[in-house]
Amino acid sequence: MRLSDLLAIDGLRLTLLTGDPDREFTGVHITDLPEPGRYLGGGELVLTGLLWRHDADDSPRFVAALAAAGVAALGAGQAWLGHVPDDLVSACRAAGLPLIEVPTEVSFRTLAERVAPRLAGDVRAALARHRTLVTALAEGAGLAELFRLTASELGVTGAVLSSTGELIVGAADDPVRLAKAYLTAPRLPARVGDHTIFAVGRGHRAAGWALVCDGDLTDRADVGFELAACVVLARGRTDEGRRVERRLTEQLVSAALAEAGAAELNARLRTCGIDAAEPYAVVSAAARRPGATRGPDPATLGGQVVEELLAREVVSAAGADGAVAVVPLRGRTAAELAAHLRAGAQVLAALPDTHLCVGLSGSLTGADALRGGVEEAGHARRLAEARSGGVVTSDEIYTYVLLLAAVPGDVRSSFAARLLSPLIDYDRRHQSGLVRTLGVFLDCAGSWHACAERLHVHVNTVRYRVRRIEELTGRDMSTMADRVDFFLALRAMGPSG
Asked: How many Cα atoms occupy the beta-carbon half-sphere of 462 within 13 Å?
């Protein structure tokens, strides 16, 4: 069938925006996948509701996939955006792909029914199912309603999970196992036991969602992709409102660090849903990806992950070196919140190239405690970064470890090398144990006999080694200052030294 014949059908009011009207098409395919090429055989008229388009950069990618698959033309509906965007017209013109505008009042089902008698195959059922899902989303249906329709219209059941194993919608027997499978799969979709896992959107997996469909959908992957695209739309709708909440959190944290008055901070706490007398905790997070040159910055990604860890009940504000979230405790203790965060972080540990670093303050109440809580959580997060990831609470930071964590790594290494290199060199040349003796001596609080017992040597051997340590370093082991320097140098050197 020629496009000119399609354009001439009374009542459809189709408009050719660009391309050759004499182009022939042999079938109709409907899709809102961002990259649908793998499901196209060539020669089709592709109909799309533009659900895949989030910004102007998406149009060239979508059109390139169609052109590579050899489709005949593209029909774009107005219903979702209200118009056909200029960037799509330009992309089709550049690719030599005819583009037809389908007005809002003309459904894809109507269009298909008018051309179906002259086309091979029955596309009407597929078009009807797709239209049902898109219409439901356009009318405000949530994820629960979408999954109910998916089960009835497509016969597909399953669940949506966060990257940390939180169940967003649906049902899954072992969400943590499935989340780990999503994080570690070399490619998606992936078959995992009795499930098929699809990625929801194109973001980083650490902050992404997984669509888990029951059964083997490897032969019906287009259904999974279409459902995933609908989930992206539903998630995007809620994320629009969260942008406002993030700005409120950012204003709250900025005001606290600027030492605003208690009245202003209490008012800002209330705008973030926290009563002035309600206990809360502060979370600071960053997701470090060593060697990564693309993708979200550590603070933004860390904030997204924390929001998923807390079941999207709170929002975070991304700062210069980490995201901050103010979390109402509401019946749980700070220790219980820490345990929940650690459980999610352990799931994310399946991603070898991403280190989630989280710091958690103690339980706080009122505006006066907020600034200290932000600083406390930040110190704890930096200690987590020094440990290459994990969750650190405020109870852990008031030790020498915090002092070392606040010092740049190259400075710690230089300090340790300057003080301990003479001992390390001596041990290497003489096969002695001065460094080990030093560590045990300090652990025994300077007790000669206790150190000798730990090392299984005579006490005079310990005395000889300590004197040799003093001679090589020029330090006096009888003074507290020199003992502290040695202690910090050994800790800065780490266990590998």
From this structure: 22
DSSP symbols for 19-61: S-TT-B--EEEE---SS-GGG--SSEEEEE-STT-SSTTHHHH
Question: Quick check: 113 and 6 in contact, CB under 8 A?
Answer: no
Q: How far is CA 357 from CA 115, 334, 444, in A?
A: 57, 17, 33
Evaluate whether 189 touches 221 at the Cβ level (below 8 Å): yes
d(CA 390, CA 383) in angstroms, rounded, equals 9
10 Å CB burial of residue 131 (0-12, 13-18, 19+) is buried
Q: How many CA atoms lie within 13 A of 417 on its CB side?
A: 6
**Burial letters 83-100, b for 16+ CB under 10 A, else e:** ebbebbbbbbeebebbbb
- Tens-digit pLDDT profile for residues 250-266: 899 899 888 888 889 98
Global pTM exceeds 0.85 = no
Closest residue by Cα to residue 421 from 474, 458, 379: 474
* Size of the chain, expressed as the number of residues it contains: 497
